[in-house]
Amino acid sequence: MGVVHRDLKPENLLLASKLKGAAVKLADFGLAIEVEGEQQAWFGFAGTPGYLSPEVLRKDPYGKPVDLWACGVILYILLVGYPPFWDEDQHRLYQQIKAGAYDFPSPEWDTVTPEAKDLINKMLTINPSKRITAAEALKHPWISHRSTVASCMHRQETVDCLKKFNARRKLKGAILTTMLATRNFSGGKSGGNKKNDGVKESSESTNTTIEDEDTKVRKQEIIKVTEQLIEAISNGDFESYTKMCDPGMTAFEPEALGNLVEGLDFHRFYFENLWSRNSKPVHTTILNPHIHLMGDESACIAYIRITQYLDAGGIPRTAQSEETRVWHRRDGKWQIVHFHRSGAPSVLPH
């Protein structure tokens, strides 16, 4: 079993510390998929525009080579401070990528070694079957013989370009946020191009992660059923709650004192006893939901849950918990098979 990240870019590469030679950590596996060996299939249109491979843009079957293409884009950026493919118009950007239309312009590339350019060329090969693999890349002279092949010169121009590139990225991100906030709070018509509803829009065409419409709809479905489950909990509706839970559901929660709970009897106790004494209104909010789709029939959602309620003295209170729930679809219905909740024991059932 292997993993295809599908969203490799500089922002998702983190250093473990500020020390020289610190380990590089890979972040944000929200779009990652598991594949069997060298499996190639159409897994959906997902990634960040400037780092998408030609096969994804052509909607061809794809696999691990898409990550090698993205690595080629990243290496290009790290060497000179700007991307190999760039255009404010996303259609023209995609045409560049599908044609493999990049070069090594002077003067920035004059001092870059031929071996570095060769590795980039092998990573940015249009045909995925001819593209260099990760194992082959590690054996490339620029990496395996870096002490004698790779240049050790300090590239201040690249550092300056990277700073400008990052500043531009942040500025456009701020502009996009303002535009989205204005649009969301306008309360008016949605407007715009309907065919792009499945894409997280950005004026910076190379920096926003995108998902296909099917993925977006499926994630919204998981958020909706989670909200319905929370509503059943807030209303003390054990009957509705049980319909949304697998009979063998497992759970870790503070009330169980660190023990794994299986089945619904443990939860029934809180519904029957706590709600018989507490019928005051409860308001629940789900914050920052993150959904990971695991095939067509399973999904995992993680979020922060804010619960507002009145205590026994009628005083308003707020409780917060961090929750992860695993959903599985059986016969067309989503059911919880496992959940994990952290935080202090709550006054309300879960």
Question: How would you characterize the overall build of this protein?
Answer:
The protein has 350 residues and is α+β, with helices and mostly antiparallel strands. The protein folds into 2 domains: 2-170, Transferase(Phosphotransferase), domain 1 (Orthogonal Bundle), CATH 1.10.510.10; 214-342, Nuclear Transport Factor 2, Chain: A (Roll). It is built from 11 helices and 10 strands. The protein has helices at residues 54-57, 65-80, 90-99, 114-123, 134-138, 141-144, 146-149, 156-186, 213-234, 238-243, 265-277, and strands at 2-4, 13-15, 24-26, 33-35, 245-252, 261-262, 282-293, 298-310, 316-330, 333-342. The strands form 3 sheets. A 6-stranded mixed β-sheet has the order 6-5-10-9-8-7. It has a two-stranded antiparallel ribbon with strand order 1-4. A two-stranded antiparallel ribbon has the order 2-3. Helix 2 (65-80) runs antiparallel to helix 4 and helix 2 packs across helix 8 (156-186). 22% of the residues are buried. Mean pLDDT is 81; it is low at 183-206.
